[in-house]
Amino acid sequence: MTAYRKAPEGVDPSKPNAARIYDYLLGGKDNYEADRFVAQRMLEIAPDTRMLAWFSRQFLIHAVTAAAEAGVTQFIDLGSGIPTSPAAHEVAHKINASARVVSVDYDPVVYAHANAMLGDMPLVTPIVADVRDPDDLIARLRMDELIDFDRPIAVLCVGVLHYIMDYEHPDRIMSRFREVMAPGSTLAFTHGSTDSNDQFINQSSNDTIGSTAQVQYRTRAEVAELFDGFEFDEPGIVPIQRWLGDKLPNTGLILLGGICRVR
Ligand code: SAM
């Protein structure tokens, strides 16, 4: 049995938290001093991290749009975070008003926000679940008839996998999803790269050590290994800016992004 680091147990304002750091970078108000401390130190080294957070949002919009336009009507947003507009369901519903979106996060604070904001929407379901236990998550999605795994789905894994350490086997997690994804399904991800600014990597690693906001940066080859058996769309695993246009600037923190599919 695998020993996971603990999932967040509610509000602990003294420890940096991934959802709240990201909220701060996106200009939100649902964050505490410990989160702002880490985020501000990130911004001191790489002020463009805030812009990168918005590129990441654009990448998510791109991935949802592409899947919805290809006829996918079921979305699983893994590590969905505190809802920020435009969220996955807003993008999907613009293309198909009957699309179903399940927002998955292990952070009860994220769930509280998501439930308050999305709880009344019949086709959007926020749930608390840990991506590191894919069997439990998939079983719940089946049992509650939230997702029909006989039909194509789009899995969003944006800004999440780098919170899963090697010893927690992110490759096995992705391969478990691949096994249950029907042909025509897609998976979009972003991942913190070891090519990021060295000072940024060292400092953010020290500032978050032992917390759930700790990031495992990976090389492009290591990221590719997480998606064994998937077929990659062009341009493959590249900084997310390359998915969005030719002229977007490079950033100190490099997020690699990819979209892959099950044939
Ligand atoms: N995907 C969203 C986006 O791109 O806007 C939010 C990204 S935020 C940086 C990362 C989110 O992943 C946080 O809300 C965090 O709670 C969640 N997360 C991290 N590890 C997780 C896990 N093992 N299971 C479920 N959620 C997780």
Describe the structure.
The chain is α/β, with parallel strands linked by helices. It has one domain: Vaccinia Virus protein VP39 (Rossmann fold, 3-Layer(aba) Sandwich). It contains 10 helices and 8 strands. The chain has helices at 18-25, 33-45, 49-69, 88-95, 108-118, 134-143, 170-180, 198-208, 220-225, 240-244, and strands at residues 74-78, 100-105, 124-128, 154-157, 186-192, 231-232, 238-239, 255-261. Strands 1, 2, 3, 4, 5, 6, 7 and 8 form an 8-stranded mixed beta sheet that branches. Helix 5 (108-118) links the parallel strand 2 and strand 3. Helix 2 runs antiparallel to helix 8. The protein starts with 17 loop residues before the first helix and ends with a strand. The model has no long low-confidence stretch (mean pLDDT 94). Residues 18-19, 22, 56, 60, 79-81, 105-107, 110, 130-132, 158-160, 163 line the site of S-adenosylmethionine. S-adenosylmethionine binds at residues 18-19, 22, 56, 60, 79-81, 105-107, 110, 130-132, 158-160, 163. It comes from Nocardia pseudobrasiliensis.
